[in-house]
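yo

u said u wanted the structure for the complex thing, so here. seqs first:
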Amino acid sequence: MDVHSRDYAARARAILRDEPHVREAVIGATVAFDQHRERAYGEVDSDAWRAWASDVKSHALTNLADYLEEAESRLTENGVVVHWAETAADVHSVLEAVAADHGVRKVVKGKSMLSEELGVNDALERQGIEVVETDLGEYVIQLFGEPPSHIVGPAIHRSLEDIQELFHRVHGTPPHATPEDLAAAARVALREAFLTADMGITGGNFLVAETGTLALIENEGNIRLATSAPKVHVALVGIEKVIARWSDLAGMLQLTSRAATGQAVGTFVSMIHGPRRDGEPDGPEAVHVILVDNGRTGMLADEATWEALKCVRCGACLNVCPVYRQTGGHAYGWVYSGPIGAVLAPALLGLDEGGALPFASTLCGACTEVCPVRIPLHDMLLTWRRRTVEAGKAPATEGLLLSAYAAAAKRPALFRLGAAGLQLLPMAVTRRLPFLKSWLAVHGDLPWSKPSFLRRWKAGPK
Amino acid sequence: MRATLFVTCLGDQFFADACADTVELLRSLGVDVDVAMGQTCCGQPAYNAGHWPEARSIASHTLGVLADAEYLVVPSGSCAAMMRTGYGELFGDDGGRAVAELAGRTFELAEFIVGVLGVDAVGSGLAGRRVAYHHGCHALRELGSREEPLTLLRNAGAELVQWEAAEECCGFGGLFSAKLPEVSAAMADRKLDTLPDPDIVTSADPGCLLHLSGRAAERGGGPVFRHLASVLWEAANGRS
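structre next:
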């Protein structure tokens, strides 16, 4: 997909100014998601569960090469064709070859953030293949021609009215159709797509090394259909999705569901062990798993970033993030938004493109508090800020002002004199100073204490 | 007992009355309070912006100024968290005993009153007052202090109002509020829009209060914002 992360500030400003309904829709959806998560965490010993889940992922990542090879062996024994892809272009080549082999003209897709990261839809369409997103939210944004704005709820930035208008235009539903009628219209269109598609493409929530099980969580049944109706199923799986043992899978599936939507477990969980076997009435003729790196081994080798690979893409950190809530995901200019997006962006896109996102946070720590696999998200954001400054990529004015501030802060008399001087400036002048200018654009006048406490203390009775 | 007050740069410049009220409140609880005149800033603005050499320079100064403090009381959860946990990160293995010792002796005001002094009621002057408490993120999540301020307010007779966004960040975030002012303001607006018409909004953090009250003023008015120290001192002093 096109990446615009370096433009975060301008994009956020534009959304707040021009699309105020986005903020309303996103706050409504994320507050609801987070309340569901909080209730679901409260039903279990979520602290213990999360510590365990963190260990499961850390163990797999610490021994990743071994478990990937084990997974490849089991997958192959199960009749799955395994491909290794280092880059998005490699993924595109594999898809092109598999599609050509099977004469594919239409693809149905289950929701996959990795496929968005890799720009899979555009690559397939360039080959003349029709691509239909079958997750309802993904279907909606595909019709709008937009990228997803949230890991779990890709269309949460859209209001019911937006979708009524869209479906009225595309499907001829009444202008004020109920959500049920809208879903029914999508169902008719998608049913047709499932029955006529030659290939299903999905992501994967977990890949179990011990058994070669590909596990997928969903609520709509579209992934079940996309992985079983077409003659070929291709799963895009980031290498960080591997876990070691079959006995760990149930716990990971449930915790991911609780964190994402507050469900005890998703409505549908598919555990795929290969193509249709002899004598079985249905299922695909061929199953392919593409194990995707796309920058992940680089993250794994970096002690400050590897923990982000534990992410299970539940979206809990987006839902609780007060910064994300104001704009939704499109401000971040990339497939991954919110705190996890801001941690992944500089790692996967580099500091020049992704370096703005770690500053899109107040470091409030709400993300770290809810993460089901205990990623220290706000600490990692701070690490990226430090690296941005060390790389000389922070704004020059900021560096100069902070140097001056630090120099003054070591000289108490000078520090207080500077503050007293600021107090004396007419507000019209204060409004032109760096930082204060932008602060005062959205706040009332500064309520200076005249004199300051320390001046009073020095002068007056103690 | 002797405690040194670190008023913080924002407290000094914008909440002078609250700093004075902190002194009075602590004295009324039998604490011998001193104020180190060499104090300036904890260094958090530079630390959070990623400018660590500057942050270390400021923190070194602050460590020196506060070296003799028996207890350090800070009327800001955020600055207290900087000194308790941030300095350890900032100096890493080079921090030595000064950093570790200061961390062990540093408390946010409500934490100090409840946790160190063992006092859970400072007066009853808030009877009948509807109070909304804004939890500063660093007091809440870095210091792990949720109940202390609520206990003191409740025991002073305040009616604590239900506030959906009470634990949500106000959007201040130091330089964040100047670098991304529109997002920062929208965050404050969510806090203000969900506020259920209290008599007083209070918090232990000058930064949050400056941001929220400044935003409310820009929007054309709003509730009364007061620092926790002032609210508690008035409760103790019977003036509230």
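Chain A touches chain B through 68 residues (CB under 8 Å). The first strand of chain A starts at residue 80 and ends at 85.
cya
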